[in-house]
Amino acid sequence: DYVTGAVYPYFTAEEIYSMIPELEELAVVTAETLFNIFSEDMTPSHWSRLAERVAQVFEREGPRGVIVAHGTDTMGYTAAALAFALRRLPGPVILVGAQRSSDRPSSDAATNVLAAAITALKAPFAESVVVMHAGLNDTEFYVHRGVKVRKMHTSRRDAFRSVNAIPLAKVLLPSREFRLFARRYIPRSGEGVVLENGFDEKTALIKFYPGMKPDILDFLVDKGYHGVVIEGSGLGHVATRLIPSVRRAVEEGVAVVIASQCLWGRVNMNVYRTGVELLKAGAIPAEDMLPETAYVKLSWILARTRDLGEVRKLFLTNIAYEIDERSEEWYYPPLNYFEAGISR
After folding, report:
1. Are residues 189 and 219 in the same domain?
2. Does 246 lie in the same domain as 185?
3. Distance (Å, rounded) from C-alpha 157 to C-alpha 225?
4. Can you give the CATH number for the domain in which 300 is found?
5. What is the pLDDT along the chain (344 residues), one digit of tens a residue?
6. Comparing C-alpha atoms, which of 78, 302, 46, 53 is closest to residue 195?
7. Which residue range(s) make up the domain with 94?
8. Which of 197, 206, 227, 151 has its CA nearest to residue 47?
9. CA 188 – CA 124 distance, rounded (Å)
10. Is residue 342 in some structural domain?
11. Is residue 321 part of a domain?
12. Which of 123, 133, 253, 261 is deepest in the core (most CB within 10 A)?
């Protein structure tokens, strides 16, 4: 907007395609606009509509892959939602965005879309993924698994990181090389897409903090929420005073999941007394899932069942590689990353 200077979601899919003529060298591309909104305005109902449309496109048009242009702020949520809603895909669903808006000379939109298109053509997997810059240059791009990715910087081009995992692959430009890192992935399928759609919008994600009062949980229960994910501290803890409210929520049929604010590592509620008491109260550990992924998964499960026993079973079932059985030490970024910069 040249009056206010603010950025609006203006470009249509066709306009983005016309701005990247290199795409014609790679494949025949069909573009359409499903929503034209900021990513912070996305809701679970938007996830459902998007998943339905992706399934239709795969079934009717048979593309090598589907690229979804998406705002970066909530891209991880949508990527996770598509991972749970879509099964037996013939190709990947690739979410891509830009950290610099498309009207700016420094925009990363074009190169990100090119890397996404190469992923659609060359990837052996058929998962929901995010493709964004792997560094500050325009030559390397990581392909992140949709249930393991998080935006970790407000403005850098390489803002996205795989958490408790490594990227699935890397794309290089201008060579258009595709390097596969992953040993385990969901392969392309020719058996027909399965759409398991729907998300329970009566699911909440809240963050524990020192001084947090139990009435926040009580409020959600009283308002008829069906599930709550709590970002606990450390291995998965909240203040002792909150445990009776967790117990009350579970007794009233509300699923309570405990994730960790630490992001890296996994929840282990068997170490300290607080965690043990939370388990006794009926809380479900989020393993090594990101809080956002745990929220999306719980919402997806609650749209299928409200039986807490079944909810627990499904939540602890690895559906889209959202749970890694082992927390590898080398997943965690090194602490001395800054030393090279200081020594210059």
Report:
1. no
2. no
3. 37
4. 3.40.50.40
5. 545 555 555 556 666 667 777 877 788 888 888 998 889 999 999 999 999 999 999 999 999 999 999 999 999 999 999 999 999 999 999 999 988 665 554 567 789 999 999 999 999 999 999 999 999 889 999 999 999 999 999 999 999 999 999 999 999 999 999 999 999 999 999 999 999 999 999 999 999 999 999 999 999 999 999 999 999 999 999 999 999 999 999 999 999 999 999 999 999 999 999 999 999 999 999 999 999 999 999 999 999 999 999 999 999 999 999 999 887 888 888 877 777 667 65
6. 53
7. 13-195
8. 197
9. 6
10. no
11. no
12. 123
Distance CA 312, CA 217 (A): 19
Whole-model pTM?
A: 0.92
**Are 17 and 29 in contact, with CB atoms under 8 Å apart?**
yes
Cβ–Cβ under 8 Å, residues 143 and 131: yes
Number of domains in the chain: 2
One domain for residues 101 and 161? yes
Contact 189, 170 (CB under 8 A): no
Q: Is residue 36 part of a domain?
A: yes
Q: Residue 118 belongs to a domain with what CATH number?
A: 3.40.50.1170
* Helix (H) or strand (E) run with residue 249 in it: helix 243-251
Per the listing, tokens 């501290």 go with: 233
| Bond prior to 9 in cis (omega within 30° of 0) | no
